[in-house]
Amino acid sequence: MNGIALRAGFPTAINPDEVRNVVGNALRHETDLARARLTSFERACRTFEKQYRISSDDFMRQFESGALGDEATYFDWYAAKRGLDVWERKLHILAGVSV
Fold it and tell me: What total of structural domains would you count in the chain?
């Protein structure tokens, strides 16, 4: 794993453990938010998958190839799947960081 250095420009009166604690809490908070957003997009994708009886991955392939048409619901599904992918990646990144 690659290391990332945290450089804090505080006066020496601030304890490094306190900085580590604050940053750790911020990371946990962001991780919780990412998890909540991911869950919301997962739920939306599952609803579309049940309605149309195909997986979101299959939908994306068909939609991006132009095979499905321009139904408004497809754009909602597309946005939900893109959101799912983005937040899944962000959560993966956040979950892999430790301070």
Answer: 1
Residue 10, domain member (yes or no): no
Q: Tell whether 87 is covered by a domain.
A: yes
Helix 72-95 / helix 56-65 crossing angle, nearest 10 deg: 120
Q: Is residue 52 part of a domain?
A: yes
Range in 6-10, 32-36, 80-84 the model is least confident about: 6-10
DSSP per residue, 42-64: HHHHHHHHHHHTS-HHHHHHHHH
Residue 43 is assigned to a structural domain of this protein: yes
pTM: 0.81
- The residues near 2 (Cβ < 8 Å, ≥ 6 apart) are none
Q: Which two tokens stand for residue 87?
A: 């937040």
Is 42 in contact with 91 (CB distance < 8 Å)?
Answer: no
